[in-house]
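ok so i was messing around last nite and threw this chain in just to see what happens. nothing serious, just curious
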Amino acid sequence: MRSLPMELLEELKSALESAIGGRAVDTLPLDSITQVQLLLTGRLDYGFVWVPPQPPLHSLRVITESLAVVVPANRKFSSLERIAPEDLAGLKLASTVDPLTVPADLGPYLDYLPRCDRVNSAVLGGTHLLVSSGEHCAFVPTNSNEHFLLSPETRRNILIKPLLEPVPVLTTYLAWHRELEETATFQAVVDAVTRVFDLRPIIGNTAIPTEHSVFTNGS
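result:
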């Protein structure tokens, strides 16, 4: 799955395990491209990806989040109300994924961030720690609470700033191979995911409707 807040991950894992009769659910931090490859080969049952995949994979939109940027807490960024693409010139991008896989809305910002340092997505707060050194920035959902996992000293060295309007968004899709639709647990899994995201109060985010009409074939 893509990076998710820890409490949301635990809530989702619990709901899925309950939905499939108490069996354990294993979660893996993987970028969208890797997830699609593993879904196609049957080595992964479900994934949370940023782009609706093509057949034979099917997908369901689960959440759309507005994005913000984590920047060093210096005088320049402290004085800015919103961050424009050119404001990031001179910084490097800290990211848990290949920048080529991020939402297209971030394209204008990435044009000013030609250098990227990859961070292990299994390290909680890894991108924020890198930003705190003063040379990087990172994009996060506006509702992200990952910075609360950092030490007070590290939090003092970063700022989370809104981006220029129109604010870039990140849409997440639950993806699976169409063969899974014939299994006994398929609908239970989809219902559990829908319930967790639909009932979760997230400011600035749009949860999916619950009707089955939201199923797509990736087109």
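not much to say yet. The first strand starts at residue 46 and ends at 49.
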